[in-house]
Amino acid sequence: MRKLVMVSMLIGLGVLPACTRTTNTMGYIVDEVLVAEVKPGIDNRASVEKALGKPSIAGQWDDKTWYYVSRNTKQTAFLMPKPTEQSIIAVSFDAKGNVASVNRRGLEQVANVDPVNDKTPTLGRETGVLEDLFGNIGRFGSAGSAGGPPQ
């Protein structure tokens, strides 16, 4: 019985490190001194890139806003990581490429998305199984006709 208890304790001690909490840092590493030196009306794209480097993300439809994003997370074993700290620095430029504003956001921007019923809601019309299977028949031209695949 004593050997069984000792073996169980050794196995428990061997498995215990798998349950430790790990931390991860992802994205831009913020240097507060450099961020404070970026001034609206004084700096431009070239000086911002020289000071802060290339942005993590540029604006989706235009490049008038550069985003520098960083996030720290903690995770225990196989559980989902949870954000502990986040920094989003948004540098906006005017039409001439000069800095218009420097805004900062933090952990309040984190959204917790909880899927419902394993379905993603979409906008538009509902389709049935038959329309999903046969809906594209006759919509496209044959090879060599206008709208058909290239030859």
Largest sheet: 5 strands, antiparallel
Helix percent reads 10-25%
Quote the CATH topology of the domain at 20-111. Beta-lactamase Inhibitory Protein, Chain:B, domain 1
What is the rounded Rg?
27 Å
Approximate shape: flat
The share of residues in extended strands comes to: 25-35%
Q: What's the order of the H and E elements?
A: HEHHEEEEH
Protein name: Outer membrane protein assembly factor BamE
Keywords: Membrane, Signal
Signal peptide: 1-20
Domain Outer membrane protein assembly factor BamE: 27-101
Give the helix/strand layout.
Elements: H1 2-15, E1 21-27, H2 32-37, H3 45-52, E2 57-58, E3 65-76, E4 82-93, E5 99-105, H4 129-134
Antiparallel strand pairs: 1-3, 2-3, 3-4, 4-5
Structure description:
The chain is of the alpha+beta class and 151 residues long. It has a domain at 20-111: Beta-lactamase Inhibitory Protein, Chain:B, domain 1 (2-Layer Sandwich), CATH 3.30.1450. The protein contains four helices and five strands, in the order αβααββββα. It has helices at residues 2-15, 32-37, 45-52, 129-134; strands at 21-27, 57-58, 65-76, 82-93, 99-105. Strands 1, 2, 3, 4 and 5 form a five-stranded antiparallel sheet that branches. The longest helix has 14 residues, at 2-15. The model has no long low-confidence stretch (mean pLDDT 81). It comes from Sphingoaurantiacus capsulatus. Keywords: Membrane, Signal. This is Outer membrane protein assembly factor BamE. Residues 27-101 form the Outer membrane protein assembly factor BamE domain. Residues 1-20 form the signal peptide.
